[in-house]
Structure formats: structure tokens, C-alpha cells
Design goal:
Layout: H1 2-5, E1 12-18, E2 24-25, E3 27-29, H2 37-42, H3 45-56, E4 58-60, E5 69-70, E6 94-101, H4 109-116, E7 124-130, E8 137-139
Parallel strand pairs: 3-4, 6-7
Antiparallel strand pairs: 1-6, 2-5, 7-8
């Protein structure tokens, strides 16, 4: 996952506590779902939404080891300065619980602490590293942040 999503261990991952009722389990298939945008446009609204949800929650069976869950929060209002949409980490259904730094990440512990301290006292800051005896990433136990 680190090589795919965290800039080859230079970035970080965020861990959330998310209400079960908003999570959707990903389905893994051997074959890609075939549908065009025109086909979805022609569907009744409810059918089109259901088809879009199917597309957004289906992946190749090559990725089944991920056992992925997704949520699709409603993004109601754009940030007036950037025009971007964000989901608050303090909403009832999603709360930031951990920041996991990649083993090549150069962020200092103090910098991360300052960023997350206003959200919750329960945010753990960790650093990942390659395991010594297997092909896996594990939590660095004796963390020495730069």
C-alpha cells in the first residue's frame, strides 16, 4: 500500500475511526464492469446512482488482499478560498485516530503534533518501517523523529 498511495514511503497515511453504518465493503471481480457514461445518463436517476455505486465499489480481484472498505461522505460546501471540498475529521461519523509516517517521510514529530493537536487528544503518531524478516511494513517501535 505504501508504494501505491504514499509516494513510495515519503508520504503518510491517515487512520480513521469511521461509523460502521457509513462503510461499504469493496467487491472484487475478475472482469471489469462494462458501462458507458451515456448508458448511465439514460438510466432513471435511482438506477444510475445504483450503477455508479457499483462502479465505485468494485475492483479487480488482483487487489482482494486489501479487504478494502470505503465511505462516500457528502461534500456540501466548497472552501471559499480554494474552491475545494473537504470532510471534517471531527464529524460524528469520521474521526482522525492516527497519522502513520512513511519510513522515508521527513516530517518532524513536533510538526505533526502541532497539526493534529486541535482535533483530538486520541490521535497517535507512528512511523512505519520495512520488517526485518518478511515483506511487510510494521510500526517502528523506537521512534526517533528527525
Amino acid at each position: 500500500m505504501w508504494t501505491h498511495y504514499a509516494e513510495n514511503h515519503v508520504g503518510f497515511a491517515l487512520g480513521f475511526e469511521i461509523a460502521d453504518e457509513v462503510l461499504i465493503r469493496i467487491k472484487y471481480n475478475k472482469e471489469r464492469i462494462r458501462v458507458t457514461a451515456k448508458q448511465i445518463e439514460r438510466m432513471e436517476k435511482a438506477d444510475g446512482q445504483q450503477r455508479m455505486l457499483e462502479l465505485l465499489t468494485t475492483k479487480s480481484d488482483h487487489w482482494s488482499y486489501e479487504r478494502e472498505l470505503r465511505c462516500f461522505p457528502r461534500l456540501r460546501q466548497a472552501d471559499p478560498e480554494t474552491g475545494m471540498y473537504f470532510k471534517s475529521f471531527e464529524d460524528n461519523d469520521i474521526e482522525l485516530r492516527e497519522v502513520i509516517l512513511g519510513y522515508k517521510c521527513e516530517q518532524k514529530y513536533e510538526e505533526i503534533t502541532k497539526i493534529v493537536e486541535g482535533w483530538s487528544s486520541r490521535v497517535a503518531i507512528k512511523r512505519a518501517r520495512p520488517a526485518f524478516t518478511k515483506y511487510a511494513m510494521v510500526e517502528q517501535q523506537n521512534v526517533k523523529f528527525r
